[in-house]
Design a protein that fits this description.
The chain is of the alpha+beta class. The chain has one domain. Helix content is 65%, strand content 12%. The chain contains 3 helices and 3 strands. A hairpin with a 5-residue loop joins strand 1 and strand 2.
């Protein structure tokens, strides 16, 4: 399952961070470990992944699934709002006409 993390910037723009990118970044950092400590490279990689995940959690990121659910809720809400606006306009027009 591929997930993305999502964050709103201060300008209201959406940033998404692919967890695969996080894993690749952790692997690359762990790959920089000197040859003498390659035996603990997997432990280092897991620690880096944990640190990255913790940092992203503090940034209040959400998963792609959560983002999709909220997008659908927003879409349905917009549709209902448009319908209600049309109904209010029709009622106002009916009140204006004698």
């Amino acid at each position: 399952m591929r997930t993305l993390a999502v964050q709103l910037t201060q300008q209201g723009q959406i940033q998404m961070i692919d967890h695969k990118v996080m894993d690749e970044l952790a692997s690359k950092i762990a790959g920089l470990v000197p040859p003498g400590v390659k035996g603990i490279q997997e432990d280092i990689e897991k620690s880096i992944q944990g640190a990255l995940q913790s940092a992203f959690t503090r940034m209040e990121l959400v998963t792609r699934e959560e983002f999709d659910v909220q997008s659908e809720v927003l879409s349905r809400t917009r549709s209902k709002l448009e319908l209600l606006e049309k109904q209010v306009a029709a009622l106002e027009e009916a009140l204006i006409k004698p």
